[in-house]
Amino acid sequence: EAAAPAAEEAPVYTYADMTLCYPQLGAESDWRTANTASIKQTAEELGVTLIFSDAQQKQENQISAVRACIEQGVDVIALPPVVEDGWDAVLTEAQDAGIPVIIVDRSVSADSSLYAAHIGSDMFLEGQRAAEEMNKLLPDGGNILELSGTVGSGAATGRAEGFRDALNDNITILDSQTGNFTRAEAIPVMEAFLKKYAGQVDGVFIHNDDMAIGAIEAIKAAGIEPGDLKIVSVDGTRGGFQAMIDGWIQADVECNPLLGPQVMEMGLKLMNGEAVDPETLTNETVYYPEEAEELLPTRQY
Ligand code: AHR
């Protein structure tokens, strides 16, 4: 008797079948360099074909890179958006082409029906954590400054809002200016702050470690000693850890850039038509100077 024909199985793709597009937003910080390395290294280890580009912090470059990937017919696009707004048109184009998009790291303001999922940090929570640290550092209140990230980015907006949400009423934010998440741009901003608010400042909330390192150069040049200004930063990079060891940063809120494995795993699930979590938030903590010396040798970024 002839055996019944086997039921036709759905095609099961493997990593070797996947072409993933990663239009990186730039190379503005050590965090970003680590994020790029994580994506590249994971793709190489798993045998994923990676289409990588660097938009140099310009949204128009990122949009062109996404369009080129759509044209090429990649399997998945993983997009770390430089800013929140302005993605609707290109996300619709990807959807019309049947290419799933994973939003990585920062968020977008576009309707969530236009993309498959978001993997990244809770920037609002990071801001709240930073405020809790500033509250502890200035228990009697005081005046502080804010050096914020790229204007319009989910990271800067979320951190600024979370910070204000959790900051004690007896702490006043005298001023807030952007340093665009880079060391170079943070230096003149901090110099101008120190001139304008000489003798009035007790602390600084800085949206990432690269800007903190730039700001510390300006603070040192102004003759201020480590610890005289309480600094709370974000990222937890090796540079941030060193600045904690040297006494400049009093608390560093973690933002984890090592997203490669999660991005590739979700990309493959999407290729295979499997359900994915619409929101995957990274588990993060806060680091302190007391543990920095011990942890620094094993920091990956
Ligand atoms: O979106 C994450 C932020 O972008 C990191 O805090 C910062 O270092 C990077 O440039």
From TrEMBL:
Main subcellular location of this protein, as a coarse class: other
Any one GO molecular function term: carbohydrate binding
Superkingdom to which the source organism belongs: Bacteria
Annotated InterPro entries: Peripla_BP_I, SBP_2_dom
Keyword terms, alphabetized: Signal
Residue span(s) of domain Periplasmic binding protein: 28-274
Entry keyword Repeat: no
Pfam families, sorted: Peripla_BP_4
SUPFAM superfamilies cross-referenced by the UniProt entry: Periplasmic binding protein-like I
Keyword Metal-binding belongs to the record: no
GO cellular component: cell envelope
Subcellular location(s) of the protein: Cell envelope
UniProt record similarity statement: Belongs to the bacterial solute-binding protein 2 family.
Name this protein carries in UniProt: Monosaccharide ABC transporter substrate-binding protein (CUT2 family)
Organism: Pelolinea submarina
Lineage: Bacteria, Bacillati, Chloroflexota, Anaerolineae, Anaerolineales
